[in-house]
Amino acid sequence: MIQIARSFVRAAGLSGIISPWLQRWENWKLSNYGALKMERLSPEAAQVENCAGARFTVGPPAHFAEMACSRHELPTMVACANICADLLKGGVAWDVGGNAGFYGAFLSQLVGPSGKVYGFEPVPDTFKLMCANLREAQCANVTPMNLALSDVDGVMPMSVDPADNTISSLELRVADSSVEVRVATGDRLVESGECEVPVMLKIDIEGHELKALKGMSGVLARSECRAVLCEIHFAILAARGERAPSAKARLHLRDAGFTHCSFISRSHLMATKFRV
Questions:
Q1: What's this model's pTM, rounded to 2 decimal places?
Q2: Cα four-point dihedral sign 110, 116, 122, 128
Q3: Which residues touch 119 (CB under 8 Å, ≥6 apart)?
Q4: Cα separation of 121 and 123, whole Å?
Q5: DSSP bridge pairs for 23
C-alpha cells in the first residue's frame, strides 16, 4: 500500500506538496527516540549531544561539521547516537556505503577506542577521499574496505558521476561513466576473517540494499548482530521493477531474528533485536 501511494505521489507530481508534511511526521517520529542537539563550534567542527548527554565532536574536515548539523542526516544520526549508542560502545559497526567517510568517523567515536568500524566504499576515487578524510579526522579504529556488499562475490560495473561523488549505483545508470568494483557478500567477509561480526550496520547503497541484505543472512542471524539501519531507495528500486521492497527487507530481517522493524523516516528502516 505504501509503495502504491509513493508511486501515485511521484506520478502526480505531488512530491513538493507532500514533502513538508512528511518532514513534520518524521520530526514527530524521531522525537520518540530522544533529543539530539547539534551545534557548529567552528568552520571545522561541530558538536553533537545525544539524549543521554554524551557529546561528540565532528570534524575536521569542515564538510563533516556541515553534515552533522544538516536536517538531511538527522534520521541516521538519531539512530546511531540515540537508539544504538549503548550498543555501539566497545563494539563493531559496519558503515555500508561509506562515501566520504562521515559516518565512519562518527561511528568511530560512538564505538570508542576499544571498538572497531568497517567503512565499505567501492568506487576507487571516493575510497581514496574517504581514507584521506578518516586520516584527517584521526580515526585509527576505522578499517576502510574498497568493495561493495552484494549477494555475490566477484566484480561488477558501478555507474558513477564524476561531477558528484555522492552519486554512484550498482542498480541504476546515473552517468555515462562506470567503473569495475569488487563485490562480496557480508557472510563471506566474516567467514574469511576479513571482517568481524557487527553489532550494528548502517546501510545506504543506492538501491542495492536488498541484495546486500541477502548476502549477509548469516551475519544478520548472529546473536552479536543487534541493529540495522537501512535506507530504502524506493525510486531506484521502482525503476528496476522491484515491487514491495520494504516488505521484502522487513521479511529478510525478521527471518534473521530482528523482532522490531519500523520506519523512523520516510526511507530509513530501523530493525533491532530489542525493544526501542
A1: 0.92
A2: positive
A3: 95, 98, 101, 103, 104, 130, 134, 142, 143, 144, 145
A4: 6
A5: none
